[in-house]
Amino acid sequence: MVFKLKKFGGISWSVLLLTFFLLIAGALNQASASMGGILFKKQLLWFTLGAGLLLFFTLMDYQKILSPKLIFGGYILLLNFLLILVIRHTRWLRLPGLSIQPSEFAKLFLICLSALILYRREGEGLDGKTFLGLSLLAFPLVVLVALTDLDQGGMLFLIYLSFLVVAGLPRRWVVVTMVSIGVIALLMGPYLWGLLKPYQRARVEAFLNPEAFALDRGYQIIQALIAVGSGGLKGLGFKEGLSSRLNYLPEKHTDLAFAVWAEEWGFIGASLVILAYFFLIYQILNIAARVREPLGRYLCYGVASMFFWEVFINIGGILHLLPVASVPLPFLSYGGSSVLANMAAIGLVLNISRRRYSFR
Amino acid sequence: MSLRYQRVPDPDRDILERRLRLISLFVIFVFAGLLLKLFFLQIIKGPYYRELAQKRSLRVISLPAPRGNIYDRRGLLLAGNTPSFALFLDPRLVKGKKGDAILQRLAQILGEDFPSLKQRYLIARRKSAGNQVLLAEDLDRDVVARIEARRYFLPGVEIKVEPRRFYPLGEAAFHLVGYVSRINAKELQRLASQGFGPDDFLGRSGLEAQFERLLRGKKGRRLVEVDALGRIRRVVAEEPPQIGKSILLTIDSIFEKVAYNLLEDRSGAIVLLDPRDGRLLALVSAPGVDPHRFLKGFSFEEWKKITTDIKHPLLNKAILAYHPGSTFKLVTAMAALEKRVISPTKEIFCPGFYRLGRRVFRCWRSWGHGKVDLIKAIEVSCDTYFYRVGELVGIDTLSQFARACGFGRPTGLGFPGEKSGLVPDRAWKLRVFKVPWQKGETLNVAIGQGALMATPLQLAKFLAAVVNGGHLYKPWYVYQVFDPYGEILEEYGPKLEGNLPAHPNTLRLLKKGLVAAVNGKEGTGKAAKLEKVTVGGKTGTAQIVGMKKRIKSEKLPYLKRDHAWFIAYAPASKPEIVMVVFVEHGGHGGSAAAPLAGKFLKMYFEGRWSSS
User: Fold this and answer.
1) B4, exposed or middle or buried, with CB in 10 Å at 0-12, 13-18, 19+?
2) Which residue of B has its CA nearest to A245?
């Protein structure tokens, strides 16, 4: 039997409650951003499907399901899909009735495989074998995803880096890597700059000086700042946001969903959501620290790093701390693949949390 | 291979836990940064961004206030409003390549070619200084429908319904009612603080200018939310416009129209007055311009044509000053009778000229009138008689009487641009020409020539006083001012300026002369005679150029021809209408002006109006 219903007790209620809070915030936000339109209804459908997935991942025996054969098989299948996307030059796998964004699931596969590798290695510290394994695993995913969606490719790369850190990458390596990146950037900067696509260059330029590009590239940043700033302490109220209601915010359903939220719910609502993300990530890291089961620990760590980078890059971009990148904000951004992948990840965390103190 | 948990000491435990602690610190650091930046944006810079948001998405639209109406004494409209559709573009949205696409679409709808439309837009945009740009006015309902149907594809394009000035009498009442036209850049600078916008109209002449403050309403304002594509989504607040006040005149638009048409293609003026209280019934100047043309503006050629027309369509001849000619002989006669320098029955022989010293002053009839007394002299308009009388009266007395009769100053109507005319005297001559008065000049003034100048309106005011028993009323034409709900705000009535310095007997004699001039055998104004009603009147023929010999006016070039005058009143027994006809360069008063008065008075008393 795959499910162990008996062991439903003992899950991390705080993770479940925080997720629940973020789902409600996400539903409210979609309701406002789409003015009760089709996207809101579809998002509710994704939430429902996601809840089922969450339940499944909470109750399954992850050690059995996440067998190397199964995961590796899935990984190969995923690579094939990604290859098709690269050839077709699209981010979306279109099936009749729905379209899937495989890059969202690529993150989950990367986390599971990395966790497996770290779990199965021998000894302490980052040996060459582990490093090679992690890198060989991550490389095709990062490259294939980045070819159609640079931002998601970057996300995968960040998750890979996060695993390297926790795998025991020596501190001097970290220093050496950062210094060498700096030197390369300095020497090769203009050349690499030339390699970037125009829209990527535009993003960086717009980040540095949004007013100078107010009409095209900086528009998104300026409108996002106006939306967030005009929220003030209490916000303009549900469905009352000027920027979203009057369509000044581009991508208000997806990339800039947090700007809609901040405008309508003000500093009180926006800081609550940020704190919710923080506690969610903190709780997952906590589970990772306390679970006495290595695979679970690495899985939790991977999920936490995924959420962390998504939240940081999305909200950091909206608050003008980072260049804007097209990365969905978990639970607040519209998107079926993102919702399903994130809820599966939460399910996995809940599953692991049950066995914090289970010894067998 | 199974992944069963095995109880082995975790080799990574130390390093993972240690790293996790560091990682947690990093996470706390990042989230603290996010919260701090959020606090900075929303709490510290909140008011700044809120203002930006409002500037971006809230717009104040000014709602035009319809001007008040102008009605005639019958309640017929002289100036009103009619809805008109105007096309406005938002320069913030119509620019660059997208703007070109919008203009291209518009060009197709308007049936104009794209380059000329774009050029027009660019010029108008420079003028509008960031405000909405007015691209086209007076759109057809067809065009409006086609634009509204494609509204989604035309962001920044707006059709506004604007009240537009409408003048039912057209050019007939042009000089009386005046016209409105768009405010120009200089005026806008001066008036912007009073709430004027670049597309507002200002009253320019006539009543529209005189009562600008009353007629102009107060503009309303509407606060709206505008979305990213410039489309209005919601009205946040509204302050409705206040319609201007309306004016009820004593003018009769039928008289106005008929009088204007009587002048046909002549250049001249007709003034109609009720002598009983001085109310103005018509104030006509011809030719006029269609006032609607000022709403759109003129092309350079059109404007040049109007301003170089020798008939001066822009000048209101009813309030400009000309030599009054023989019509002024009434004043001379009045002065002579009052000062008793001559008895009304005393006859003077007219051989066709009058000799003063070495100078010879001609009578208009070169072979003379023979023996004439006062009544006869008025009837036949004998110059010799009045040369003699004028000489006896002297310029001091004559100018004093002329002023007492209302000459030499505005009539008190309050009409913009009204001239004072000129009553010459010794002091004036010395002041202006630095030479003393010549006796011969008195003779010229006595027959309404020389430096003497009077407006048709002044003559009407004077004649009204002569026939109503000596009461000099200020002409008036505003009867009531009322608000859009019909509430009467102000009401006006006759204003007596004074009395003529004349004994009733004097006035009786003058009237006798006036009746004789129309009804007598040799009367100069016979053309105005009616069968059933007794008309009194006096012709006038004002010379423009001094000539040794009389030449028939028709043979002279237009600009050198005499001005023709005819002043009339009727019925003689109980006067109820005074009419002044002035035909610029029309020739002889008896043949050019009197027939017009005759035609009008016939229609007036028979009550059968035909405007041709």
Assistant:
1) exposed
2) B227
Distance CA A159, CA A141 (A): 12
Query: Domain map of chain A by residue range?
Result: 21-59+197-360, 63-195
State how far the alpha carbon of A167 is from the alpha carbons of A297, B14, B271, in Å: 12, 11, 108
d(CA A294, CA A314): 30
Look up residue B285 and give its amino acid: S
Residue B470 and residue B509 in contact, taking contact as beta carbons nearer than 8 Å: no
Handedness of CA A141, A143, A147, A150 (dihedral sign): positive
Question: What pLDDT, on the 0 to 100 scale, is given for residue B260?
Answer: 94
Chain A residues near residue B27 by CB distance under 8 angstroms: 278, 281-282, 285, 308
Q: Using CA atoms, how far apart are residues B505 and A205, in angstroms rounded to an integer?
A: 100
Residues of B in contact with A68 (CB under 8 A): 1, 3
Active-site residue B591, yes or no? no
Tell how far CA B228 is from the center of its chain: 45
- Cβ neighbors of B517 (< 8 A, separation 6 or more) are B378, B379, B380, B381, B523, B524, B525, B536, B537, B538, B539
B283 CB-contact burial (10 Å; exposed 0-12 / middle 13-18 / buried 19+):
buried
Q: What is the pLDDT of residues B45-69, one digit of tens each?
A: 999 998 888 888 888 888 888 899 9
Contacts for A288 with CB less than 8 Å, ≥ 6 apart: A296, A297, A298, A300, A301, A304, B16, B20
Catalytic residue among B326, B381, B399, B591: B326
CB contact under 8 A, B11 and A301: no
Task: With a cut of 50, list the residues of chain B below it in pLDDT.
Answer: 1-9, 12
Give me the helix-helix angle, A128-148 and A68-88, nearest 10°: 30
From the list B503, B328, B477, B476, the residue with the least C-alpha distance to B403 is B328
Residue A130 to chain B, least CA–CA distance (Å): 13
Interval A138-160: pLDDT, tens: 999 998 888 888 889 989 999 99
Dihedral angle sign, alpha carbons of residues B120, B123, B127, B130: positive
The kind and range of the H/E element at B133 are: strand B133-136
Res B349: pLDDT: 92
CA distance B90 to B232: 12
Domains delineated in chain B: 54-83+158-249 (3.90.1310.10), 89-128 (no CATH), 253-606 (3.40.710.10)
Cβ–Cβ under 8 Å, residues B215 and B244: yes
Which ipTM value was assigned to this complex?
Answer: 0.91
Answer whether A168 sits within 8 Å of B15, measured CB to CB: yes
The reply to whether residue B41 touches residue A319, judged by beta carbons under 8 angstroms, is yes
Contacts of B39 in chain A (CB under 8 A): 267, 271
Chain A residues touching B12 at Cβ < 8 A: 118, 124, 168, 294
Contact A133, A113 (CB under 8 A): no
